[in-house]
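Notebook entry, structure prediction.
Reason for the run: the old model in the group folder had no record of what sequence produced it. Starting over properly, with the input documented here first.
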Amino acid sequence: MKKAYIFDLDGTLANTIYDIGDSINHLLIQRGLPIHSYEKYSACLGMGINITLSRTMSGYDVLPPEEKAALRRAYTIHNGEHCLDKTLPYEGIPETLKTLAERGAVLGIFTNKPEMPARKIAAALFANIDFAFVLGNVEGLSMKPDPSRMLAELEKLGITAAETVFVGDGGPDIATAKTGKMFACGVSWGFQGLKELDGADLVISHPRELLAI
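New structure, fully documented this time:
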């Protein structure tokens, strides 16, 4: 068994697509723009809210930087208030996290989701899990696929990359693991699909398979 298991959040630990979609649609409605389906949003996640808005909000790319920043803040505030309206953990995730923790594994979250709603979701859905850290997207700080923030937290805990599994549903997760020289575990139940998991050391179809790594 590895010493640490670090997880992506959206599409890996929890199905957050409905609350994400609702929050972006809220911004689009405010600007008089057409809204999108949840399926559309599932294909536009993984690289942070800036890229998601670029892919889903007409005219976003030509806005002044301060207006883009204001939209990102508005999204984070709305999603922070509504991130638990429809979000649920995937089947088998709570039990698997509990078993890993009971076996002595260090657990953490590293996501490109804004950090405030990420922490709120982790605390609400996995209240009995003592995550060593929950790292999310913070303006001005690095994000996936750069693993440096996560590796710094692991170093504080005395854990090496070789002792760590990184678990996620998309290409940025696999790239994060590979860049950081961690074991890359892809999950088939997420938003991105199997094509995004090329290069993974292992792809699993149920959370309990983590217990055999």
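Summary: The chain has eight helices and eight strands.
The old model has been moved to the deprecated folder.
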